[in-house]
Amino acid sequence: MPVPDPVLPAARQLAFDELDTPLYATTFVVVDLETTGTSPEGDAITEIGAVKVRGGEVLGEFATLVNPGYEIPPAIVQITGITTAMVYAAPRIEAVLPGFLEFAAGAVLVAHNARFDTAFLKAAAARQDIPWPNPQVLCTVKLARRVLTRDEAPSARLGVLAQILGASTTPTHRALDDARATVDVLHALIARVGNQGVQSLTELLDYLPGVTGTQRAKRTFANDLPAAPGVYLFRGPSDEVLYIGTAVNLRRRVRNYFTGSETRGRMKEMVALAQRVDHVVCAHGLEAGVRELRLLAAHAPPYNRRSKFPKRGWWLTLTAEPFPRLVAVRTPTRTGLGPFSSRADAVDVGLTIAEFAGLRTCATRLTRTAKHTCQPAIVGGCPAACDDGSDAATYAPAAHSVRDLLTGRSDSLLRAMLDRIETYSTAEHFEAAARLRDRTAAVVTKLARTQRLAALARLAELIIALPDGAGGWEFSVIRHGRLAAAGVARRGTPPMAVVDHIVAAAETVVPDLGDAATSNGRALQRHAMPIPGIPDAAMATTDSAERQLVFSDDVPPFLGAPPEEVGVIARWLAKPGARIVRTSDGYCEPLHGAARWVAWAQLAREAADVRSEQEQYLAER
Asked: Residue 210: its pLDDT value, please?
């Protein structure tokens, strides 16, 4: 006889009178899970323990082992003590979850690091097509960090809090024991806030993120903002710009700054100073992102972290010497690589490239007729060192190989790095292989980004279309890596008519040719080495309809476009469904550029970031 599906309580939102229930009359279900790992999608629950309490009295307990359907990893067994043999005869989660949801129905769900436990419970419910009841959730980690100072509790781990707050149960990484310990921690924390006027569930939820009355009172700042994408600017007492941000819905985003969802201390301080909020409505997200960058550069607001040093990037470039070197500079040349956020990062990448190219790293000044005489060293020597020294002609191929790498004409140096990694691995020199893997991944990542952005910046005009999700299109006109115009064709509107309109009204963008710009109406002579990604075609001068490209070692890689703005555009172009409507020249990246190695670099970074299963599990608990 088939067993009928359990009847679960319908999901509902707590009413205001229920939220105002005194804490002593509020029912809490404190839950703890043990699992086979840290991924709700890839791992499974092995044990559920829960305690139902109200007014300090235990109303009931729920505890069961759960068969995950496969062997429990040894690293997890070592932590929890739960073995595969122990769960062999235990029920599956399909049989356990309905009973737990019935046990917890109508109560506030409490967990230590609630994000972890609720994620596993939601995933299990989704796999069984059981509607998640969406209970009110309280996290004792967040509550402890709000109530206790760092001096009182340097860590928010359950074991530490149980000891500090005098819990009667010691956590053991078994579900019911940990749930009982969490009950004691919850009661101790509630007792701490009781003398601060926190007596009801509503007051506790408001207290948790630390929302002040002043912060709530400023919610009126958002009343007149439109529910549209754009940029918002918080202004201070002297009308100065305090903070700039973007939103897909201006009214909703700004309103969040005056609620408990805003937990950043810097933002609370900023809101306390703010006197009003200005806004700029934008056609879509790309225009909002670009306008934000431009406003950050114009105002340098003190509460935006990335506005402090907007133009202080570092670039790697070849020096103009008979024996060129890679150096870190503020102003890039045609063969520049960057920008890097720090000089140290630029130097590290430069040393890796120099090592495999045989490019010198010594700072000795050498004339065209001199010889490079650095002697080979076992460790840390100049990569260009040789026993007999080298003249400028002998040294030249090293510099050419670096130019070819940076401009994407050859990836032979990258292949040499990968071959060296393989050699180290074959010889079982795994630490050396791992170090070189990380250095090579850094080179590939920076090369690929620079080459991609340079390919965008060299286009005189590029028109991008992206579906708006409602049957329409979002259009952007890009000129030499800068956003020149933006518009939207709503569903039912002829899209090409909108394109023609925004192109006609688009901003004129004149590329920055650096020191290679024309002087007194005369164009400089064309250099033998082309600009990365720029074809041998013509480019317009300011007073001529004919377009004539000027080539020089001093032409910036992005033709003067801000790297952050070109980066935002590149990410927009990579969005699913994005299309190129038309372009002045076919969009292309270097044939032998670093883009083909990006997937390898991503795997390398993931390998470097991997922690053991045991470390990941303990970090979540």
From this structure: 59
pLDDT-flagged residues of the chain (< 50): 1-4, 6-19, 518-553
Q: Going by C-beta distance under 8 Å and a sequence separation of 6 or more, which residues neighbour residue 602? A: none
Say how many C-beta atoms besides its own lie within 10 A of residue 106's C-beta.
13
Angle between helices 175-194 and 140-147 (to 10 degrees): 40
Instruction: Specify the residue for token string 């140290």.
Output: 344
DSSP summary character for residue 321: S
Whether 278 and 288 have beta carbons less than 8 Å apart is answered as no
pLDDT value, residue 620: 66
Residues 552/320, Cβ–Cβ less than 8 Å = no
Rg (CA), the chain: 31
- Closest by CA position to 257, among listed 274, 236, 239: 274
β partners of residue 234: 243, 277
| pLDDT number for residue 310 | 52
Q: Which amino acid is it at 415? A: R
pLDDT at 314: 93
Question: pLDDT at position 476, please?
Answer: 97
Rounded Cα gap, residues 509 and 541, in angstroms: 11
**Catalytic residue numbers?**
173
Here the contacts of 12-16 (C-beta below 8 Å, separation 24 or greater) are 13/134, 14/136, 16/202
Element (H or E) spanning 339, and its range?
strand 337-340
Tell me whether strands 337-340 and 314-318 are parallel, antiparallel or unpaired: antiparallel
Q: Is the peptide bond before 209 cis (omega within 30 degrees of 0)?
A: no
Angle at CA 585, nearest 5°, toward 584 and 586? Answer: 130
Task: Select from 194, 243, 177 the least CA-distant residue to 22.
Answer: 194
**Rounded Cα–Cα distance for residues 345 and 280 (Å):** 36
User: Is the Cβ–Cβ distance between 169 and 162 less than 8 Å?
Assistant: yes
Is the full-model pTM beyond 0.85? no
> What is the tally of helices (H) and strands (E) in the chain?
21, 15
Name the amino acid, one letter, at 101. L
- Cβ-contact 242, 236 below 8 angstroms: yes
So what's the pLDDT on residue 219?
79
CA distances from 523 to 520, 535, 540, 551, 554 (A): 8, 17, 11, 9, 14
Q: Which residues of 494-517 are buried (b: 16+ CB within 10 A; e: fewer)?
A: ebeebbeebbeebeebebebbebb
pLDDT value for 150: 82
Report the candidate in 212, 220, 230 with the shortest Cα–Cα distance to residue 267.
212
pLDDT at 18: 46
DSSP secondary structure string for all residues of 89-123: TSPBHHHHHHHHHHHHTTSEEEETTHHHHHHHHHH
